Amino acid sequence: MEEGTLESPSKCAVTMDGEDTDPFQWDTREGCQVRQILDRVADKWSLLVIALLDNRRLRFTELRREIDGVSQRMLTVTLRQLERDGLVKRTVHPVVPPRVEYELTPLGGTLHSTIRSLVAWTEAHQGEIAAAREAYDERVGASA
Amino acid sequence: MEEGTLESPSKCAVTMDGEDTDPFQWDTREGCQVRQILDRVADKWSLLVIALLDNRRLRFTELRREIDGVSQRMLTVTLRQLERDGLVKRTVHPVVPPRVEYELTPLGGTLHSTIRSLVAWTEAHQGEIAAAREAYDERVGASA
DNA sequence: CTGGATCCGACATGATACTG
DNA sequence: CAGTATCATGTCGGATCCAG
């Protein structure tokens, strides 16, 4: 594997003394799992896969078709990561034309709802953000 | 600006017919703001900055010190993006030693709480994920 | 059909040096 | 202090070819 792999786990928080769990430090713990998991979860393709797999079982090709923008390589990589993290279950049917199905694990299911709330925030405020950007760009453009 | 800039806005969802707003399609809309905003919000440094700025006003150097792992360049870029998106407010005091302070906007505040829930999920399940990874790696290593 | 392995270009990020 | 500009580089992602 060339990417997304963690070489130095350096697990943290899990067995921490409790003093470095400050509300402002949850993210400062760089080598920590949190930071890494967050990156994976927030990943473009991961998000799509998790969303599409909600209460469904899909085959590789089906996923590829639905997502469309994804390359076969990234879909494979993404699915492997999600499988490794225990968020997605991969089932291989030993038949002549290989048939592999993917589905969310219970853990993956809980993540799905959490993600939805983040997406909900985004959808709810994209108008404000767009407006803010326009205003900002105008300000900058004016001074330039 | 060299990065993070959106060349083809191709705004979507905001003014959509309503048929492509399927629960499974919120993320398929690639050119959509949602996808882009999500990337920004989930960004490593953005997350840190937003967390640190919660109910505080910090100077550039202060932020840099607290985050520590960040390069001065990325901090600048990140702050600019957040400012442009209306999530962070930048205040410049025209004094001899330049004094610039950053703080969350109300919008940024709402985002903060949303992010916290995502982080909460991550913290709550990092143990399960770690276990899943170990199991997976063992499985793979065994077959290899 | 479902991927594994490679090659490679694009882009994000970090380090460094310079400025108001 | 608070950046901007430039250069170097590592990583990610896409395209391709190959295999079970």
Automatic annotation (TrEMBL), chains A, B:
Protein name (database record): Helix-turn-helix transcriptional regulator
DNA-binding keyword on record: yes
Coiled coil: none
Organism listed in the record: Streptomyces liliifuscus
Classification via InterPro entries: HTH_HxlR, WH-like_DNA-bd_sf, WH_DNA-bd_sf
Pfam families: HxlR
Domain HTH hxlR-type: 32-130
Molecular function terms from GO: DNA binding
Keyword NADP applies: no
Keywords assigned: DNA-binding, Transcription, Transcription regulation
